[in-house]
Amino acid sequence: MFDFMFDPLLRPIVIPLVAGFVCLVLPRRWDAARSWFAVAATAVTLVTVWPLFAGVQPSSSQFGDLFRLDSLSGLVLLASACFALLTAVYSTDYVKQKPQQRLYSSCVLWSLGFACAVFLANDLILLITCWGLLAVTLYLMIGMAGPDASEAARKTFIIIGGSDTLLLLGTAMLWVHHGSTRIDAGALVLDSASAWIAFGCFLAAAFAKVGAVPLHSWLPDCGEKADAPVTAYLPAALDKLLGIYLLVRVMVDLFVITEIIQTLLLLLGAITILTAALMALIQNDLKRLLAYCAVGQVGYILLGLGTGTALGMAAALFHMLNHAVYKSCLFFGAGVVEKKTGTVDLDRLGGLATRLPITFAAFLIAALAVSGIPPLNGFASKWMVYQSLIELGRDGGNMLWVVWLAAAMMGSALTLALFVKVLHGVFLCKPSPEIRATDIRQASWAMALPMVALAGVCVVFGIFAHVIPLPLLIQPAVGEAVTFSGTWWAGQASGLLLVAFLVGWMVYALALRNGKLRKVPTYIGGERLDETRIPGEPVGPQRHVEVTGVDFYQTVEEFPALRPVFRIARTRIFDVYESCGKATARVTETLRGAHTGLLPHYLTWFVIGLLVILCFMMRGTG
Question: What is residue 533's predicted lDDT score, i.e. its pLDDT?
């Protein structure tokens, strides 16, 4: 027992699991201490993870057959511990005075412990077991948002749990081929039907866990109904790391990937990008919109992996890390907006840029990053994805490389349009009557610090991409040299942008000082009309013919080529969970009709069953 607890390789697992039980048993009067104890426990876990990531070899362990550490495990271990620490700090204020604070702190720590176990597992049975326990903590954390979140929690648990069933089936087939369930037992060649079925099980499970089309439907519901730190920690950050980690293991360690599989990944990546971006454009709920955007970003990772090159692998891992950074920042910002205003409906927000300046600045940086605007980290990783697709076409590896590249670039354009809508609707347009009537003050430092830290990472990982993240984090995880056929000068571009900003600020300051600023009514794209004057009454206020940003984007749904798609999508026919539920209900009703309650009918079915069994037995003996 003590060897297990003090093994350096297992400390990131044991510490948060034990700390989670401590949080659970602390009395309710110690709620504030419980939250900060969770922060301390995640910080200690991060300290134990660092030497593993930095390459310090752990001491020999009697559990060597069950656990292993390599560069990829070290990368995702470090990232998961960092996100857990930021989430714990953010949650100290967000979940304050909530009735389930005790269980929430425990679930945050348990999720970290089970995730570390998944990353370090060298046995597929152990990996599946820990992932199943992680699904339980995810279910509990989503349900803590209240009765409205119960259906989303159930849906998430069924899809994630169903994917564990697929993992078990695929593992059983691998055991038949290898005689082992170890991850490092060797890559299986896809030369038989059972091998292809095993691969399909693992691929479907990875898609369900990462939230890729068509197994993505749990993520928007979870994003909409769950608390903001939950969506920032699990679906936006930790679950993306887990899902992509599994997908990389499937492609590198478990199976020998063929050109057909690469084309399938490229196709599904392009579909995921465009589908999620279009669905996000028509959302009015801020958190659901961000969840659809999180689905779309998975498509870029699939495109990178689908190229099958070292550059594509590096681009996929870099975008995985960047996506977790800026998407967590965006969900943290949405949490501040929800906590301060009581809503995330874009039609009921506006004018928050001056009331929540720190939140606005961090949200703006993260929004530009996810949209692929230089010099931020989202542009750097997307640029690598573009390069890997161009390299694929230049080498003649895939004749449709132009289609995949066009889908990726179109997705970036749609994402930018999407966040123009969000920034306008939440921060820049005139405030709604509810906002004007609400006393809104800046978020506490506990909620602001994680956002500022993640926004800073967006800047640093973009400007210094070839100095910090790529050589120190991504290159070791890829395991081979990564070459770039094209590059961009992030330092020079950032310097020019900074100079332009300073010049503009100086011009504005001088004009303000000399009193030469001219104030005019804001142009809103519509005419300004005078109210009709009633005899004997003073002239009424001027009114505008105004189309809001949210209303403007609703025209996307009326586009002739897209109108049928959106109409069908609103029926949830593309939702695997809903479609399977309806099909199961129809089968149940059909079988229920056979239960007449008449004994002769049951005897007839009994005799038919016996005859069928007898036929099979006679066929086998013959």
Answer: 43
What residue type is 21 in one-letter code? F
Scanning the structure block, which residue is given the tokens 């903590």?
Answer: 137
* DSSP notation for 193-241: HHHHHHHHHHHHHHHHHHT-TTS-THHHHHHHHS-HHHHHHIIIIIHHH
d(CA 259, CA 244): 20
pLDDT of residue 527: 52
Q: Which residue has the tokens 């369900």?
A: 208
In which residue ranges of the chain is pLDDT below 50? 1, 59-60, 529-535, 537-540, 542, 544
- Residue 158, H or E segment: helix 150-178
Q: Hey, which residues does 236 pair with through a beta bridge?
A: none
In contact, 251 and 388? CB cutoff 8 Å: no
Q: Which tens digit of pLDDT belongs to each residue from 264-285? A: 999 999 999 998 888 888 888 8
Helix or strand (DSSP H, E) at 620 = helix 599-621
- Sign of dihedral through CA atoms 249, 250, 253, 254? positive
What residue spans define the domains of the chain?
A: 1-122, 148-257, 267-478, 575-621
The values of phi and psi at residue 538, to 5°, are: -70, 165
Of 297, 110, 310, nearest in space to 213 by CA: 297
**Of the candidates 58, 55, 62, 70, the residue with the CA atom closest to the CA atom of residue 11:** 58
Taking a C-beta distance cutoff of 8 angstroms, is the pair 378, 322 a contact?
A: yes
Distance CA 342, CA 167 (A): 40
- Joined together, the tokens standing for residue 78 give 């470090």
Q: Is the pTM of the predicted complex or chain greater than 0.85?
A: yes
Distances (CA, A) of 110 to 33, 72, 104: 18, 22, 10
Whose tokens are 């505008």? That residue is 544
